Amino acid sequence: MHSNHLLLEEPIRMASILEPSKAGFFPAMTKIVGTLGAKSRSVEVLSACLKAGMSVARFDFSLGDTKYHQETLENLKSAIKSTKKLCSVMLDTAGPELTVLNKSEKPISLEADATITLTPDEGQVASSEVFPINFGGLSKAVKKGDTIFIGQYLFTGSETTSVWLEVDQVKGDDVVCIVKNSATLTGSLFTLHAAQIHIDLPTLSDKDKKVISTWGVQNKIDFLSLSFTRHAKDVREAREFLCKLGDLSQTLIFAKIENEEGLTHFDDILQEADGIILSRGNLGIDLPPEKVFLFQKAAVYKCNMAGKPAVVTRVVDSMTDNLRPTRAEATDVANAVLDGTDAILLGAETLRGLYPIETISTVGRICAEAEKVFNQDLYFKRTVKFVGEPMSHLESIASSAVRAAIKVKASVIICFTSSGRAARLIAKYRPTMPVLSVVIPRLKTNQLKWSFTGAFEARQSLIVRGLFPMLADPRHPAESSNASNESVLKVALDHGKASGVVKSHDRVVICQKVGDASVVKIIELEG
Q: Pyruvate kinase C-terminal domain: from which residue to which, for each copy (predicted)?
């Protein structure tokens, strides 16, 4: 993967661009999160999605009940078993999301310059004259001239399936708006987004709490995607709630930045969260178009320097209905990778799109091509400079392992870890080769029964760029008392050989604990 590394800053032979790319064992270092729904919930499609490169499955609880999502998850487990591909589970909360319920599910056509009333009276039937919404405080939050956007759930931003409204007047609890563009809205649920307006609703709703404490606990979710995170305290409160649920104290919280409020408090949120999801759909409404790229680049950089995963959404909307992305979308995916993004999140494209497998495969190929020209040298120097001196012990070991691997042209870095932290720190320095994270299970007890930890840590690395987990046999110790106890290493190398990551005469960099010391060593495989 590292051998054909190019740099765009250096002269590049144009004809070489047309040479077919060699397929690697891993589709790409950048991870792909797929939202599961109607078009992507059968065992057959899920198996194909895993083979195409999906490593995180997102369950969006704005749509569907726990029974529906449980059926999908059981199918995913069957697909994981048959493909032998690991996949982690992300629960996405509904949060303070404003929606219009279209009970009849009939398409609703709106004409430009017509008026429409938004009402909190949910007993009314949605039509081209009135939209019942799930929030009683909209009339107090908006004023004449404000902008409101309504689109099909998980909208794609297409102007024919979403509508812009301008507030004309407030009548009691109702808001009368002027339609700015003609559109036809389809489906049972529409999303409503009021640009740059504070919505006085809790980030974690009662419905969210119920879903997490039942479905989330039952399935030991790996990630919680906290929709509409606006303040650091939103993350703190969510973590307190998870800790009360015992089994979910290890669940990682990804703060979803969706509006101006979240953007304003970004630095504080990043400090509290385990990762960030840049929800560009809603952000693209709150921000002027010319500012969206600036926020993305600044936010991804901050995540990279903090060593926390950055996930970018809304990249290939047009693939919801088409087999190929637009030129702008293909370039957008590549630029997200060059910016330093850890994962690409697919929404409508896999939830209700016609080509979920092809979308994952296409995005994976674009990511792999972009990774070949990622300026690792510049990134490494920038990260080392940002971290400063003196470095922490772990940070120093991680950066040294990456530097050594690049200097000796290693084919893989193998890192032994119990918590997953050491492997994530290595990935922070974006090595050009895969990092095989060998998670050593630890024995723990709640005084009633003994159990092994490790599966959580292994699955949670599936959202980090360049990190590929492997769960070791608990009988093999992570910390060998002497450097010659190589049993776990042999298992890891055999796994690497079987998967085609390493071959005879390759060099491999090992990062492990020997006694109390952390050691980085280089080995050359025999022929």
A: 395-515
The C-alpha atoms of residue 390 and residue 51 are separated, in whole angstroms, by 43
What integer is the mean pLDDT of 67-91? 95
HSE-CB of 527 using CA atoms within 13 angstroms: 0
Three-point CA angle 490, 412, 497, nearest 5° = 45
Q: How many CB atoms lie within 10 A of CB 491?
A: 15
Geometric angle at alpha carbon 282, from 279 and 286, rounded to 5°: 120
Closest CA to 458 of 480, 474, 446: 474
- CB distance 92 to 123 below 8 Å: no
Q: In a 3-state reduction of DSSP, which class is residue 323?
A: coil
Other Cβ atoms closer than 10 A to 289: 8
* Size of the chain, expressed as the number of residues it contains: 527
478-524 pLDDT, tens digit each: 444 444 445 778 778 877 787 778 888 889 999 887 767 788 888 88
pLDDT at 471: 74
Cα–Cα distance between 100 and 149 in angstroms, integer? 11
Q: What is the mean pLDDT of the chain?
A: 88
Residue with tokens 């902008």: 147
pLDDT bucket at 420, cuts 50 / 70 / 90: confident
Give the DSSP H/E element, type plus range, for residue 268.
helix 266-272
Strand, helix or coil at 102? coil
Neighbours of 392 (CB within 10 A): 10
Residue 418 CB burial class (10 angstroms; 0-12, 13-18, ≥19): middle
**Which pair of tokens denotes residue 1?**
């993967």
Give me the DSSP letters along 147-194: EEEEEESS----TTTEEEEEEEEEETTEEEEEE-S-EEE-SSEEEEEE
Q: What is the DSSP letter of 133?
A: B
Cα gap 317→400, rounded to integer Å:
40
Q: How far apart are CA 513 and CA 138, in angstroms?
A: 57
Burial of 19 (0-12, 13-18, 19+ CB in 10 A): exposed
Q: How far apart are CA 478 and CA 487, in angstroms?
A: 10
Q: Tell which phi-psi region holds residue 192, choosing left (phi > 0), alpha (psi between -120 and 50) or beta.
A: beta
Mean pLDDT, range 436-456, rounded to an integer: 70
Summary count for the chain: helices (H), strands (E): 18, 24
pLDDT digits (tens, 9 = 90+) for 258-307: 999 999 999 999 999 999 999 998 888 888 889 999 999 999 999 999 99
Strand partners, 480: 514
- pLDDT for residue 9 is more than 90: no
Residue 14 DSSP one-character state: G
Which range of 29-38, 390-399, 415-424, 436-445 scores highest in mean pLDDT? It is: 29-38
Collapsed DSSP state (helix, strand, coil) of residue 437: strand
Bridge partners, 278 (sequence order): 257, 312
